[in-house]
Write a structure and sequence with these properties.
The complex is a heterotrimer of chains A (271), B (286) and C (416).
Chain A (H helix, E strand, L loop, with lengths): L2 H22 L1 E4 L3 E4 L4 H9 L1 H32 L4 H9 L6 H11 L7 H6 L13 H25 L3 H9 L4 H12 L1 H17 L2 H6 L7 H11 L3 H26 L7
Antiparallel strand pairs in A: 1-2
Chain B lengths: L15 H5 L5 H22 L19 H4 L5 H34 L5 H13 L2 H15 L5 H24 L4 H9 L4 H30 L2 H6 L6 H8 L6 H37 L1
Chain C lengths: L2 H9 L9 H23 L26 E5 L13 H10 L2 E5 L5 H13 L8 E5 H9 L12 H6 L16 E14 H4 L18 E4 L2 H11 L9 H16 L3 E5 L3 H7 L4 E5 H10 L3 E4 L5 E9 L7 H10 L3 H11 L8 H11 L2 H12 L7 H4 L2 E2 L6 H15 L2
Parallel strand pairs in C: 1-2, 1-3, 5-6, 5-7, 9-10
Antiparallel strand pairs in C: 3-9, 4-7, 4-8, 4-9
Helix pairs in contact in C: 8-9, 9-17, 13-14, 14-15
Classes of the chains: A mainly alpha (271), B mainly alpha (286), C alpha/beta (416).
Chain lengths: 271, 286, 416
Amino acid sequence: MLLPGGLWLLVFFVVPMVSMLSVSMQEGSLERGYELTWRLQTYLDVLGKFDTQFVRSILYGLIVTVALLVICYPLAYTIAFRGGRWKNALLFLLIMPFFVSFIIRTLEWKFILADDGFLFGTMKNLGLIGEDFRVLATPAAVIGGLVYNFLPFMALPLYVALEKMDRSLLDAAGDLYSSRASAFFRVTLPLSLPGVFAGSLLTFIPAVGDFINADILGGINTTMIGNVIQQEFLVNNDYPEAAAISFLLLAGILIGVATYARLLGTEELTG
Amino acid sequence: MTSPSTDVVAPEGTAGVRRRNRRGWVLPVYTGVVIFYLFLPIGVMILFGFNDITGRFNFTWQGFTLEHYRTLGDFPDLVTAIKNSLIIAAGATVVSTVLGTMMALALTRYRFRGRGGANLFIFLPLGTPEVVLGASLLSLFITMGLDRGLVTILIAHIMFNISFVVVTVKARTQGFNREWEEAAKDLGASPWTAFRTVTLPLIFPGVLAAAVLAFALSVDDFVITLFNAGGTLTFPLWVYGASRFGVPPQVNVMGTLIFVIGITLALGSVWLQRRRGEEIVAGYLR
Amino acid sequence: MTERDRRIDELFGGLHGKVSRRELLQRAGRGSMFLGVSALLAACGIGGQQADESPDPDDSPSPLPEIAGELIFANWPLYIDRAQGESPTLVSFTEDTGIEIDYQVVINDNEEFFGTIREPLSRGQSSGYDTLVVTDWMVAKMIRLGFLQPLHHDRLPNFEANAFERFKDPSYDPGNVYSIPWAAGITGIGYDVERTGRELTSMEDLWDPAFAGHVGMFTEMRDSFGFALLANGVNPAEATMEDVEAAQQKLLQQREDAIVRGYFGNDYTDQLATGSLWVSMAWSGDVFALQQDNPNLRFVVPDEGAMRWTDNMVIPVGAEHPADAHEFMNFVYDPRIAANITEWVWYESPVSQVPEIIREDAAAASGGEAELLEQVAESPLVFPSEEIEDRLYNYKTLDEEEEQAWNDLFQAVVQG
């Protein structure tokens, strides 16, 4: 059952990762060639050099995830519980903007948020906001972009979890004279936790490693660790550093997620 | 697919039904607002696909024209890029949904040694930044002497999609009530028939959601594709390159077309699903 | 005892105590897995860049094969003429010679593109391309790494006959052994005169606090450092390590005072046109194009100087159709063809007859097209005057160490 999928992942995921691990411990340069010297100093160097970006990425990731939880939960709830016949239609409405390429959507936001574009330009002309007001090239723009782009990653798992919930449980709660709020907190919310968990992961992790939003919408103090990795790999060709950064990021994420899993008590649910 | 309980008459004293109608407008309005927000850049994109630009840059509105739609075929790289994206997405979706659903079922149904490890293992590609996945795959392909192109992109897409599919389907199969399947088997169905007629329809929404997600992820993918495409252009790669000089209207046009096709497919599938859903429920309630 | 031995010892260290058979097997299993992984890790090294065979001491080109009828050409976007979805130049080339061209617009950044072809080239294998167009400093780098094939100048008579003298024998490729120019341009300052409220003339204008939050600098290290060096009064082609450190300080100050808005690649054009950027480092051809849409945009070569660069055609090692590549390279040095390209691309042509031809075309045309062509012919952006040429500086050719050092310094600026 597991085998074909597992095999695919093994070859195309594990082996490259091993290759990367090796690279992170190598030394040398593009021209002289790299040698595996088991050098772990690179990891420390990288932590020192890019601590700001690491922290910033994690911070942005957290902000984005929490924001999306808040935004998407009511959304998923409405569709799952109040959608009725319109459920699937609403769901597709939700997903449809995301059939358009991520790059295009982000570029459109850049256009919309332009300092003097049709939105802000008009507002400035009307005196609604100050001349110096800008969103682009600030952390707000990057976070906004991330929130927008990762919305379905949070909404869908939440929806799936809420939708499959057995409604009779809610009715039972009602029978037992629970208020609606209480029924929500004691029945719906806990039962939707696998969705919350899945959604948070699917959002937090790519958000932390993203570089497109920072690249297109960001400015000077918005560099994320994804941008650093891209630079180190593609521009500086400093493979050992790039690989080390990647592994550190990976480790950080795994630790964070394991902690989160423990907190939520959903360890059993994920096996 | 309505739950059976709505047919049951609510006992007296349940305030729920009456309270619902008073503040009932909040959530739907909120949903509307969110959907508007989601569509805003799309609207802008569609609008500027009709911009009658004189120069090379598409920034300010200069008038309405259909020219960009007419001249779309004049951009062979674009056409190729689109074709590539679609082929890859279709292939990746099918393979990864099948493989991923199998894995999700295996993980939630059977208890076996190493299950925790398997879970972690499947989770890892999700926990890895795309940049890392892309670069590591590239080094693998080079070591293997594999030329980068359509095939390597496809391989990469399937790889990262599997994990997404597993996670999405698992959320659905998690609380899955095995009894239905057991019951079918008790009634003499073979495991495959039981799966096909009982399990599959019930987990289908989850599988469908996963497939949709996989398709969208594949069409959209930029980073991993960037590393593994060689000279092949997919649509996002083409857009990124073209946009360095300001988003050309062709991008808007293509985006709009993809969007319209998406709507058509969606409407079609919604219609199909509703009919199927009604059939299944009717079947069970008979 | 090597590290590896020591570790294996540790794994089996418990042997002196009572170890159950199962435990031993487990440990052996782990140990061999470890060994296996180590071997795997060591095997996953990345080969050095230097091609296995060093170039001939006298750089004489290897003999060309027959013309194959095919050519794979990689170039930057918007760098060749275009009409109705095709390039007239490419079409007429195929008509004249029968050679099919697979024209791939895959280069958006020198380093980025380099990253995609690095590996096969370092093994002397084909990169998948016959001709590339890369910037002068990248040509130097690729020469240093042995990635380029020497050219057969006997197949390139048009270059000899038609190119401007100043494009021959450049410092980054003495004698044009490996490259001939495709187009040249200037990195200067582009600005919106309406938003800045005044005309700009100095490099220091990029550091003017009045424009805080609306200044753009490049992610292109050589350009940005070049500008900072010029602002400090240093010739970029002769900069020492100290000069570069001072330049870095200047860039850092620009960042700390929040004057610079961001570091851009080609996407600065979009920002300049929409007003997010008021002043930016800019490439001459871009600004010329933007001016068609926004007449408030100006391009200036600052008093302190600006950077001049040349994009060149090169043939990488392992190219499968080098003879066809030569045909094309010679073809685009035909004055009429070169003029066609320039009239569309709006960057400086290395072909000496081009300015004259464009002026003739302008005279012969009418209406809007005539206007445009005249602008092109007279534009100092497309054909810089002597006076401007004097203020233009080349990039310094860096060796590996210097490049690494400069890059490190620059990363600290760009990646904060």
